[in-house]
């Protein structure tokens, strides 16, 4: 780290200007006194140029590859790495070596060995490092943890956590989109739910000792294709399209006709208008029938965990939901229970029978979940220490990734994994 502490606004370079990198960067627009985007590295011209223009980045700080950024003297206090999952390792190692504080999009990497390499690199460089497990930082989940720590529910017996991906979001990201195949990205548990596993471990506050998992592709496969769809491969050619819940016309084209231009439409074409969206559905992957794609990641999965104190947890991730990524958590204890819908927590006290609703935010204007993490990250840099700000540093993040890899091993090998044996096997 630098001997002198940096002053606000903290400067940041963005590596990967897709939807995630753009989301983190947008914190600077709403909080210019805290953060300034000064460089971008992105291979796609339109994304790179859009971010450069939006944040008034000097031309000499606009790069098509993170390696070009690494060849320059350090340009900023920190870097956000939001590349594809399998491209996290090398930029993290090299940029931390150069002294950049690192905020790394989840998952850390797609193998235990590469996660270990990242942990070793950032510890060696002594930079501030945060993995984007945003759930720990939200007022809602911090209140859940506070209630548990206050002994409101007594000893934890069981936690149930549901991650509802959303039927259209799952079709977009994990059937037609960038995360449809494990060998191009990672499995759905690591990509989508690694921060849910992190949250469960955080709430229990003890070490997981055994883990099992079951999951499969239940719906998004050829034998579930409606007979009325016939031989159609694309939604625009399909006689069943108007009745299909996963119609690409409904998800992308109809909203554009109503003037919508944001996510997910903005990810399928560089220019969002009727003509270009139509062309994308006719020629690109996002127009395909969801039963005619080459996806291989689970559309439903359960993870079962038991911790050293005897507490048990279940995580369920499922595609077929109306809710989109608004997790639901139920905590069952010896003195009471908590039932949270992602916004409001209902507390029942077994001793008195009293029931209370707790709104951690109330009428206050809320930030995006990403912003809670970003605020913690920039404050840590300004103070020169992760302590008290970063809850998902290298060791904490690595531990929950081990749980994720162990769960996938359990699922694919139809077994129950003992974590001590798993760690010994992988020297971690």
TrEMBL record:
Question: What Gene3D superfamilies does UniProt report for this protein, alphabetically?
Answer: Dihydrodipicolinate Reductase, domain 2, NAD(P)-binding Rossmann-like Domain
Ranges for domain Gfo/Idh/MocA-like oxidoreductase N-terminal: 11-132
**GO molecular function of the protein, one example?**
nucleotide binding
Protein name in the entry? Oxidoreductase domain protein
Every copy of the Gfo/Idh/MocA-like oxidoreductase C-terminal domain together lies at 145-362
Give the top-rank taxon of the lineage listed in the UniProt record for this protein.
Eukaryota
UniProt cross-references to InterPro entries, sorted A to Z: Gfo/Idh/MocA-like_OxRdtase_C, Gfo/Idh/MocA-like_OxRdtase_N, Gfo/Idh/MocA_Oxidoreductases, NAD(P)-bd_dom_sf
What broad taxonomic lineage does this protein's source fall under? Eukaryota, Fungi, Fungi incertae sedis, Zoopagomycota, Entomophthoromycotina
- What SUPFAM superfamilies does UniProt report for this protein, alphabetically? Glyceraldehyde-3-phosphate dehydrogenase-like, C-terminal domain, NAD(P)-binding Rossmann-fold domains
A Pfam match: GFO_IDH_MocA
